[in-house]
Amino acid sequence: MKKIIIINGPNLNLLGKREPEIYGSQTFTAYLETLKSKYTHVDLSYYQSNVEGELINKLHEVGFSYDGVILNAGAYTHTSVAIGDAIKGIETPVVEVHISNTFSREEFRHQSYISPNAKGVILGFGMQSYELAIQSI
């Protein structure tokens, strides 16, 4: 059984409430239950934090024992050299995920410090981006 963790960064705890025109109206908790029932052959866990250092700590914790990390670092994608370095320092492959198409948004969202160290990037497919990431692992 593959062991995969989904790690969500800042403000993603507000999914279902925050900007539904961009992020949809479903909470991540509800979506996670859908994923778990569909991928019963995967040991799927979840972690969310609004704090950069906590995200780095979690990457370090799982980065040598899991089969895959699905990471939506939120706005830290565009600002955190430290998260990019954390991904570079671990062995577990990381798939970068975004719900929205970041290239159709503000210019600053076109830069990612995660992409150069990620196994791949999936963006713009709404919550389905997470499912595509599971399939890629």
- Strand neighbour order, sheet with most strands: 2-1-3-4-5
Please count the helical segments: 5
Oligomer: single chain
- The name of the CATH architecture is 3-Layer(aba) Sandwich
**How confident overall, as mean pLDDT?**
92
Radius of gyration: 14 Å
State which percent range the strand residues make up.
Answer: 15-25%
Poorly predicted tracts of residues: none
What is the H/E string? EHHEHEHEEH
Largest sheet report: 5 strands, parallel
The CATH superfamily appears as Dehydroquinase, class II
Number of separate strands:
5
CATH topology annotation:
Rossmann fold
**Helices and strands: which structural class?**
alpha/beta
Write down the domain tally.
1
Tertiary shape: globular
Query: In angstroms, what separates the terminal alpha carbons?
Result: 12 Å
- CATH class placement: Alpha Beta
Q: How would you describe the overall organization of this protein?
A:
By secondary structure, the chain is of the alpha/beta class. Helix content is 32%, strand content 20%. The protein has helices spanning 20-23, 28-38, 52-62, 81-89, 128-136, and strands at 2-8, 42-48, 68-72, 94-98, 120-123. It has a 5-stranded parallel beta sheet with strand order 2-1-3-4-5, sandwiched between helices. Helix 3 (52-62) runs parallel beside helix 4 (81-89). The protein is globular and about 35 Å long.
